[in-house]
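>> received
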Amino acid sequence: MKLPVGLVYDSTNKVVLDPDLQVQTAVRTFFETFRRTGSATSTVRSFREQGLLFPRRLSSGPHLGELVWGPLLHHRALRALKNPRYAGAFAFGRRQVRRTPHGNQRIYVPREQWHTLLLDAHPGYITWSNYEDNVRRLHYNAQAYGTDHEHGPPREGPALLQGIAVCGRCGGRMAVHYYISHKQVVPEYRCQREGIQHAKAICQRVVGRVLDQAIGDLLVETVSPLALEVALAVQDELEVRAQEVDRIRRQQVERARYEAELAQRRYLRVDPDNRLVADSLEAEWNNKLRALVAAQEDYEQQRAAEAGVLNAEQRQHVLALVTDFPRLWRDPATPHRERKRMVRLLLEDVTLTKADEVIAQIRFRGGATHTLWLPLPKPADQLRRTDQAVIAEIDRLLEHHSDAEIAEILNARGLRPGVADRFSAFVVWQLRRKYGLEDRCSRLRRDGLLTLDDMAATLGVHRSTVKRRQSKGQLVSQLVYNDKGQRLYAPPGEPVISACLYCGKLIHERGKRGQKQKYCKVSCRTGAYARRRAAAGWVRAYRRSSALRVQPQSD
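>> returned
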């Protein structure tokens, strides 16, 4: 019976591990990578990114049975993961041939229908329990296996409970859908299996934004005491993984060097007169030398690229990140796929029930449980509606501020309207109109203040005269009541009567032009001036003209 790569028959026709250590290392690294990533596609991607090759034996052609090395392909990865020979088991009857109108079809049958299964029949690379875990994980990853869309591998989307959310009504797995809200991707968990199959309404749907945030906070609170232990484990795993990968690459270089030396020895042993064979061996030697140079260059490049990842300084950085688990969890650079892997390491599943509130029953690995009660998310119309507390605050601020000033105050407080990212004077004006809020001008007019036109009509002067008197301080004006710089004025009161400071006659304190007056007429002002001058002892000296008059001469 044909054996998979990594297993061979010895001289006694018993199945043993391949004596080639490079082959053993590649196969062990393959299973270890799948255990770490949890996906066949991720395993193939990891091999490609690290420049690792995987062995295979030719099944046809003149080099039948020879070992060749090449990139790991997805179908070969699936075949190796499903092969029980790697677990040391002999199995017969895993596939059956069925005749169909389109020809014979080979299908896999359940394990209960296998003809023969012998455990521990020969040495293997993994245990039987590891093999069962691998097959079970492949089954969960292959979403086409079930209409329930069970677990599946962690994807790139932000849905934290992808694959582990369970409906609290019917017990089915909940699918994940995404929609855009305020330029952000928001997950939504839907139980839609029965609805799709029977053309009915879906069982329930739960918006995942607040739910995922609560689950993340719970994990941060739960895992933080164990952060140091996790950090040490992660650092050790990085070191072991780097050493293993470096050993595999070094073995690839050694194999290429061995093949180049073997080709050299073959060329040196050939008869020089046999030019056809000599030319062929020389060409093969040159090809092996080029392959050796390429392998060495690739090894040096990969080693130089990883030197910056695993140096002492960045190991301390990794240690600092993991010890501070909240910062690692909330770090924007942490991929969503890695967060989901953390969740699956800690949680078994989360059962969601939507009633008057969202009830999340969390089941940790190991049996511990925890329940969260979350409020229902607001409907779309309420999400686009400004909070009533904000409307009340705008109403209060209108007593002393204009629309633009109110927008600046609300933005500084971190408040947000329902339909925009920030407040502006236009948004405040729209909210005033929608909710019937009285503007500041009307509030001040209600207190008796006058506009510019009203003040000009009351005084019987022009508008420019009112502005000029206000700038000189002859009129009492209120602060600016809008964003155009317009003002309101205090109404002119009853005229104040005072006595003339010279003659004592009763006069108005202000004149027709709004100026202050102390005297009833000009003569009183000059008389008061002369009186103050005389009281100060100052006397004006008058000069007589000393000009000579010229007398006319008589003849």
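>> The longest strand covers residues 184-191.
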